[in-house]
Specification:
By secondary structure, this protein is mainly β. The chain is built from 1 helix and 11 strands.
């Protein structure tokens, strides 16, 4: 089993930055694609960004391109997401996830996600 634990959420003003991290334990996630989904109140969960198992390929939702950057450290079994130029519409619970391939994230195939973190709140004030 894999446990994913997010950290780094919080309250920030519009235009500010936050860095979310996701630490995996229990077993290595080196063979998994990793990524982030978010869910705002009253809205469906949506794909944000993902990175493949070797860190060579990434995919971003159009809404965060140019502002968010994902990276992973396989040695530390962690994945991070740097969020810059935050907007009020970025307010949501952000959840880390692991899946067997990047396509799961790109297609938004939530049912195919193998592991989820518990989520961390990001609130952007205007």
């Amino acid at each position: 089993q894999v446990q994913l634990v997010e950290s780094g959420g919080g309250l920030v003003q519009a235009g500010g930055s936050l860095r979310l991290s996701c630490a995996a334990s229990g077993r290595t996630v080196g063979n998994y694609a990793m990524g982030w989904f978010r869910q705002a109140p009253g809205k469906e969960r949506e794909f944000v960004v993902a990175i493949d198992w070797n860190g060579l390929t990434t995919n971003y939702a159009d809404s965060v391109k140019g502002r968010f950057t994902i990276s992973r450290d396989s040695a530390k079994n962690t994945v991070s997401m740097q969020m810059n130029s935050l907007k009020p519409e970025d307010t949501a619970v952000y959840s880390c996830a692991a899946a067997l391939n990047l396509g799961v994230f790109i297609r938004g195939s939530i049912h195919a996600i193998n592991y989820w973190g518990q989520g961390t709140q990001v609130t952007v004030s205007s």
